[in-house]
């Protein structure tokens, strides 16, 4: 789309992913050559496809652990959104490239013979009428599933333990990760597994629909399977062998995330008017696509301040650990990205606001304004629900002599919460190999990013400027940007160069004078106290 002639050529970012309120949907954005979003559309599974009976796009099974989505619902949602676009007069003939993203870890099981059906789609019929018999598993496991603990333990044992698996694949075994899900299906439904000719992720499944044949899995989303060696970017034979037989041939070979995987199927050319040369760029996971949509660069960190707080890190030298997830970077094949999730996010901030700032964000801000950086050495850990990073529960307060105290004055509680949340983020990010650099930008998003005083603490703790961005469409916009990147030649052209025209984030806070001195002194102390709580609240080390 870079050197195009028509007045508006564009790329499409298509995505199967969840939005802020956890409702699942298919969402589309179209981005023109000036990187402006000029078209958006979405289809909500629960509302627009009620015949599938999902809630939040999924079925939670009676065991409370198994969570699946009907694959034909996703297929039909694509039919619906393309028909909506057609009915709205969207000019498909100007789409030079498309890419997309899918919720990570989910898996789709194509029945033997399905590729033939994909390759011979009739443009007179919708997809869902032609793919009815193409799946050996109709209810696909998705990222909310937590029913594979046994398979996780088997996988870790097969490769020498949790840390060994993390060094190999970027994460220790997690229930939602695809290898463990495949292992469960092989063990519990061997017949369906043997009738499966191809296994896709949600991302490569969506790309396959557009390609009209099986799309390969990209390195970045493939890093969320506990199967891909993230350094060599090849499947780990030890992991494959532990999960299920003949697995490599069902997965196909992984490809760089910026790869053009082919031209769009003639089905879309004839049915919707896409140009025959429209390129399909490898689809990826929603989080890697969000990193692209936020245009994160080397040294940057994105902080999504939501119900739970999520950190997106750009890493050059990852240090795989027993927490967090390291994925191959979706826009720079030499580098990596990491996700870190902190469960006690906005709900914890709201509780402290209610208890110590009269339920008012302006009182909360006043408390931050009236207390000094470093909070007089008072440090707090606030986990009203079991925290993920690290696994601690409860509220723990320490005074400047490192003595436990049961309470702080109201204003000090407020600052202790926010400084503690951000010091924890910096410490655990650095534990994965992240380093603040002179060019570091912190991109803040999510509810709390509207509070300037909270962002000031974030800037002070990291010693870096904080910018705010709207990420409602980040995964989708990131997919459209990646489509442009693939079109521009992928690895030969830096992603940042391709998307330099995109709108810039707004500067919201810069570090206060003296912030580095204050927090360079406090961070090691905070880390030691966190380890002290951990050793007190869980048994002896494994
Ligand atoms: O499991 C996750 C990441 O590891 C979630 O963010 C899913 O990608 C959401 F779709």
UniProtKB/TrEMBL annotation:
<keyword id="KW-0418">Kinase</keyword>
<dbReference type="Pfam" id="PF00370">
    <property type="entry name" value="FGGY_N"/>
</dbReference>
<feature type="domain" description="Carbohydrate kinase FGGY N-terminal">
    <location>
        <begin position="139"/>
        <end position="293"/>
    </location>
</feature>
<dbReference type="GO" id="GO:0042732">
    <property type="term" value="P:D-xylose metabolic process"/>
</dbReference>
<dbReference type="GO" id="GO:0005997">
    <property type="term" value="P:xylulose metabolic process"/>
</dbReference>
<protein>
    <recommendedName>
        <fullName>Xylulose kinase</fullName>
        <ecNumber>2.7.1.17</ecNumber>
    </recommendedName>
</protein>
<keyword id="KW-0547">Nucleotide-binding</keyword>
<dbReference type="GO" id="GO:0004856">
    <property type="term" value="F:D-xylulokinase activity"/>
</dbReference>
<dbReference type="GO" id="GO:0005524">
    <property type="term" value="F:ATP binding"/>
</dbReference>
<dbReference type="InterPro" id="IPR000577">
    <property type="entry name" value="Carb_kinase_FGGY"/>
</dbReference>
<comment type="similarity">
    <text>Belongs to the FGGY kinase family.</text>
</comment>
<comment type="subunit">
    <text>Monomer.</text>
</comment>
<dbReference type="InterPro" id="IPR042024">
    <property type="entry name" value="D-XK_euk"/>
</dbReference>
<dbReference type="Pfam" id="PF02782">
    <property type="entry name" value="FGGY_C"/>
</dbReference>
<dbReference type="GO" id="GO:0005829">
    <property type="term" value="C:cytosol"/>
</dbReference>
<dbReference type="InterPro" id="IPR043129">
    <property type="entry name" value="ATPase_NBD"/>
</dbReference>
<feature type="domain" description="Carbohydrate kinase FGGY C-terminal">
    <location>
        <begin position="302"/>
        <end position="485"/>
    </location>
</feature>
<comment type="function">
    <text>Phosphorylates D-xylulose to produce D-xylulose 5-phosphate, a molecule that may play an important role in the regulation of glucose metabolism and lipogenesis.</text>
</comment>
<keyword id="KW-0808">Transferase</keyword>
<dbReference type="InterPro" id="IPR018484">
    <property type="entry name" value="FGGY_N"/>
</dbReference>
<dbReference type="InterPro" id="IPR018485">
    <property type="entry name" value="FGGY_C"/>
</dbReference>
<keyword id="KW-0859">Xylose metabolism</keyword>
<keyword id="KW-0119">Carbohydrate metabolism</keyword>
<keyword id="KW-0067">ATP-binding</keyword>
């Amino acid at each position: 789309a870079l050197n195009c002639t028509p007045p508006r050529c564009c790329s499409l970012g298509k995505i199967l992913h969840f939005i802020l309120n956890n409702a699942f949907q298919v969402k589309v954005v179209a981005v023109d050559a000036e990187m402006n979003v000029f078209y958006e559309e979405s289809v909500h599974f629960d509302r627009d496809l009620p015949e599938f009976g999902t809630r939040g796009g999924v079925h939670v099974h009676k065991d409370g652990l198994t969570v699946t989505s009907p694959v034909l619902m996703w297929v039909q949602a694509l039919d619906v959104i393309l028909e909506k676009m057609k009915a709205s007069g969207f000019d498909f003939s100007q789409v030079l490239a498309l890419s997309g993203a899918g919720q990570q870890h989910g898996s789709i099981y194509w029945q033997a013979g399905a590729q033939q059906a994909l390759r011979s789609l009739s443009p007179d019929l919708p997809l869902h009428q032609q793919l009815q018999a193409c799946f050996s598993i109709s209810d696909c496991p998705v990222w909310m599933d937590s029913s594979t603990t046994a398979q996780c333990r088997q996988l870790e044992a097969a490769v020498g333990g949790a840390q060994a698996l993390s060094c190999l694949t970027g994460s220790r075994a997690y229930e939602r990760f695809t290898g463990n899900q495949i292992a469960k299906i092989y063990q519990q439904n061997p017949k369906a597994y043997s009738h499966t000719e191809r296994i896709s992720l949600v991302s490569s499944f969506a790309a396959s629909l557009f390609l009209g044949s099986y799309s390969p899995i990209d390195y970045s989303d493939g890093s969320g399977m506990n199967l891909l060696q993230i350094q060599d970017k090849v499947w780990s034979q030890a992991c494959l062998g532990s999960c299920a037989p003949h697995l490599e041939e069902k997965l196909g070979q992984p490809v760089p995330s910026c790869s053009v995987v082919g031209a769009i199927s003639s089905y879309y050319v004839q049915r919707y008017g896409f140009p025959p040369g429209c390129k399909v760029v490898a689809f990826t996971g929603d989080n890697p696509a969000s990193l692209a949509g936020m245009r994160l660069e080397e040294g940057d960190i994105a902080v999504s301040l939501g119900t739970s707080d999520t950190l997106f890190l750009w890493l050059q030298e990852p240090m795989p650990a027993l927490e967090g997830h390291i994925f191959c970077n979706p826009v720079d094949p030499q580098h990596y990205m990491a996700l870190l999730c902190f469960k006690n996010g906005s709900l914890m901030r709201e509780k402290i606001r209610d208890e110590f700032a009269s339920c008012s964000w302006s009182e909360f801000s006043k408390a931050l304004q009236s207390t000094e950086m470093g909070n007089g050495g008072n440090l707090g850990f606030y986990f009203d629900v079991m925290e993920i990073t690290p696994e601690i529960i409860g509220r723990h307060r320490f005074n400047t002599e490192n003595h436990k105290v049961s309470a702080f004055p109201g204003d000090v509680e407020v600052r202790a919460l926010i400084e503690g949340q951000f010091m924890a983020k910096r410490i655990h990010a650095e534990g994965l190999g992240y380093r603040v650099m002179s060019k570091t930008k912190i991109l803040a998003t999510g509810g709390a990013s509207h509070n300037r005083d909270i962002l000031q603490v974030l800037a002070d703790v990291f010693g870096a400027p904080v910018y705010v961005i709207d990420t409602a469409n980040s995964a989708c916009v990131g997919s459209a940007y990646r489509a442009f990147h693939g079109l521009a030649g992928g690895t030969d052209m830096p992603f940042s160069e391709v998307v330099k025209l995109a709108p810039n984030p707004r500067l919201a806070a810069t570090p206060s004078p003296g912030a580095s001195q204050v927090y360079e002194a406090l961070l090691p102390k905070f880390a030691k106290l966190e380890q002290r709580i951990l050793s007190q609240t869980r048994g002896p080390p494994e």
